[in-house]
């Protein structure tokens, strides 16, 4: 059995998210179907990804793995690389296929995921409308970046996460900062060891509330003390969000990282 790593990009507009769902077009479903076809497998393989993006969310740097029991792994890599490029629809591409190092797991070996949320608080170029969310009031980026500082580090982000039975909302937020692009749009960079459901879009919504003057920085910091999802936190539209990159440790640290990530996170660790 050989494990393969796939580096993937997609425009999320036409997908109902990453995760396969019967009767719906998803990134996972599209890829698994075409991989099975180009390799002439009896059943489609199963992909595991680094971040299960929601419907409408894009990715430039998604990573996935799959396990195949086929002869000549180098030939499998070459076949997937060549034939997927020709077979896949235009809104998804596999940029690279490689044989994964020992211990690699696209999900559990990752040490960080880096998302960018793009906003426009002025005129928006129509060509950017599918990757940038509009806000109606000017954004004070100095205030936004100052308010973001208390959120960095290890916290329970339950106020920003949709409830999932048995899932932890404890995360280590490593970066949360915004800057303005030359074209006037705003990029909010968000990086953490992992994210729970809707966390990035909720963090963005809360920061927009502060940056437009509707809420205070103290309100935002106080959300870290919540014991359930806050109804005061708006969830921003999906189309402004892109999974830009996933980070992994060196090959000799992969197995240890997988073991660590599978252990349930808690503030007491």
UniProtKB/TrEMBL annotation:
E.C. number: 5.4.99.12
EC main group: isomerase
Record NCBIfam families: hisT_truA
Domain Pseudouridine synthase I TruA alpha/beta: 147-249
Recorded catalytic activity of this chain's protein: uridine(38/39/40) in tRNA = pseudouridine(38/39/40) in tRNA
SUPFAM superfamilies recorded: Pseudouridine synthase
Positions bound to substrate: 115
Species assigned in the record: Propionicimonas paludicola
Family of the protein in this entry: Belongs to the tRNA pseudouridine synthase TruA family.
Subunit composition and interactions: Homodimer.
Gene Ontology MF term list: RNA binding; tRNA pseudouridine(38-40) synthase activity
InterPro entries (alphabetical): PsdUridine_synth_cat_dom_sf, PsdUridine_synth_TruA, PsdUridine_synth_TruA_a/b_dom, PsdUridine_synth_TruA_C, TruA/RsuA/RluB/E/F_N
HAMAP family named among the record's database cross-references: TruA
Gene3D superfamilies registered for this protein in UniProt: Pseudouridine synthase I, catalytic domain, C-terminal subdomain, Pseudouridine synthase I, catalytic domain, N-terminal subdomain
Keywords: Isomerase, tRNA processing
Active site: 54 (nucleophile)
Protein name as annotated: tRNA pseudouridine synthase A
Name of the gene: truA
Annotated PANTHER family: PSEUDOURIDYLATE SYNTHASE, TRNA PSEUDOURIDINE SYNTHASE-LIKE 1
Function of the protein: Formation of pseudouridine at positions 38, 39 and 40 in the anticodon stem and loop of transfer RNAs.
């Amino acid at each position: 059995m050989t494990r393969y790593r796939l580096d993937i990009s997609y425009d999320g507009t036409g997908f109902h998210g990453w995760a396969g769902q019967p009767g719906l077009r998803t990134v996972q479903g599209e890829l698994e179907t075409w991989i099975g076809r180009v390799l002439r497998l009896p059943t489609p393989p199963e992909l595991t990804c680094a971040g299960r993006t929601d419907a409408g969310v894009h990715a430039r740097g998604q990573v996935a793995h799959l396990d195949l029991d086929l002869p000549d792994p180098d030939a499998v890599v070459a076949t997937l690389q060549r034939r997927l490029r020709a077979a896949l629809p235009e809104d998804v591409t596999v940029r690279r296929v490689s044989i994964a190092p020992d211990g690699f797991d696209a999900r559990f070996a990752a040490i960080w995921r880096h998302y960018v949320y793009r906003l426009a608080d002025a005129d928006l170029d129509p060509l950017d409308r599918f990757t940038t969310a509009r806000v109606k009031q000017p954004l004070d980026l100095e205030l936004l970046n100052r308010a973001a500082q208390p959120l960095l580090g290890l916290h329970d982000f339950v106020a920003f996460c949709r409830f999932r039975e048995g899932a932890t909302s404890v995360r280590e937020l490593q970066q949360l900062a915004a800057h303005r692009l030359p074209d006037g749009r705003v990029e909010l960079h968000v990086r953490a060891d992992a994210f729970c459901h809707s966390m990035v879009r909720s963090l963005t919504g809360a920061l927009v509330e502060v940056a437009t003057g509707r809420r205070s920085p103290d309100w935002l910091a106080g959300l870290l003390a919540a014991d359930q999802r806050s109804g005061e936190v708006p969830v921003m539209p999906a189309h402004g969000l892109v999974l830009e990159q996933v980070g992994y440790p060196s090959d000799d640290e992969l197995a240890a990282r997988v073991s660590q990530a599978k252990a349930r996170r808690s503030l007491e660790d």
